[in-house]
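User: Batch of two.

Assistant: Item 1 of 2:
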Amino acid sequence: MNLKDYMNDETLINGLLNEESMAFKYVYSKYKPMIIKLMQGFKLSNDQVDDIFQDGLIILIKNLRNGKFSRQAKVSTYFYGICRNLVFQKSSKKTETTLSSDSEFLLDQVQEEVSEMDGLIEKENQFAQLESAMQKISEECRKIFQGFYYQRKSMNELAEELGYTSSFIRVKKNRCMNHLKKLVHE
C-alpha cells in the first residue's frame, strides 16, 4: 500500500489497528502539520508539541481498539479534538500559558482548515470511487459518458457515432448511469 491508500478512513483505521507503518506515516504527514498549527498559539516547545502529538496518537489508537471512536466524525477531526483537549489540559496546568485573542483566532482558523481538509479528502475519496467504478463499466457505457459529458455531444451525435437510435442511446445512458451509481456506492 502507499500513503494515498490511507485517505479512506476505514483503510486508515484498519492500518492503525494492524500497526502498519504506512498508516502511521500517513498520520504524521497529513495530521502533524494541522496539529502544529493548532499549537502555534501556545507557548510550547517543539518537544512538548511532539509529546502531545504522540499522546494524541496513542489515545486515538486506544479509542479505536476499545470502540470509543464511533465513526460519526472523520478520523482527522477526531484526532484534532484529542490533541486540542491535550493542549488545553497542558495549558490549564501552566497558568502562564494563556490564550490571547490572536491565539483564539488562530485556533478558529485551524478548525476551519481542518473542516476544509476533511471536505477535500472526502472529494478525493469520491473521485477515486468514481474512477474505480468507471473501470468496471462496459466500454460502450464509457463511450456514451465520454461523448455526452466530456465532449458535450448530443444524443443524436452519439447515436450516429455508435450506430444506434437516439432513443436507444438515452435509455442506455440511463442504464449505464444506474449501474455506475451502484458501483460507486458498493
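Item 2 of 2:
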Amino acid sequence: MEERLICPDRRCPVGDDRKTARFQLGREPEGMLGVAARCAYGAPTVLVCSPVVLRGGGNAEPFPTVYWLSCPFLRDMIGRLEGGPAFRRIRGLIRKDGTFREGARDSAANYRADRARLYEGIPDELKGMINENATKDLLSAGPGGIRSFENIKCLHIYLANWLAGNADPVGRITAELIAGMDRRGTQGDDSQPVSV
C-alpha cells in the first residue's frame, strides 16, 4: 500500500526541511519542530509541530496540530476523499464498530499525550503568554483540536498521525482509500465497504 501513497511526479525539492515544508504548504510551517515521516524521495511528509506558536506581534497562540501533513499530493488526494461518501462511512464505523471506535478513542488519547509531552518542553515564559482556559482547551482536545474523537473531520490530521507511526484506525483507512484511488484521485468501486 505504501507505494500508492507516493507522489507520482516528485513535486517537492529535497534538502532543507524547512524550505521544503514552506514549498509544500505555500507558507511558513508554523511551529515546525521537525519531521515525523518522509516520502520515498526523502521530502517531509509529516511535520511535528509545537503546541504553542508565536504569531505576528509576538503573540503566543495554541496550535493543536501535532502532526501536520505537508505532502501536497496526499493533501490533494484527501481533498477528493473528503468530498465523497468515504468520509460518512468512516464516521459510521466509529458509531457502529466497537473495535474501530475503541481504536479511534485510544488514538485520540495518545495524540493528546504526545501534545502534552511537547507542551512540557516549551519554555515557561512562552506558556505564560497563553491564558489558562486556552491551555486547558489545548491539552484536553483531540487531534487537530477536535473535542470528541467521534466527530472526525479533516482526514489529513489522522493520516499524518498514522504516517508518523502511531496507531490510528482513521488514518489507516484513509491511507487504504488513497491507495485504492487512481492517480487522478478517483476512488474505485465506492459501493465497497471500508475495511477495518
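Residues 35 and 170 are 21 Å apart (CA to CA).
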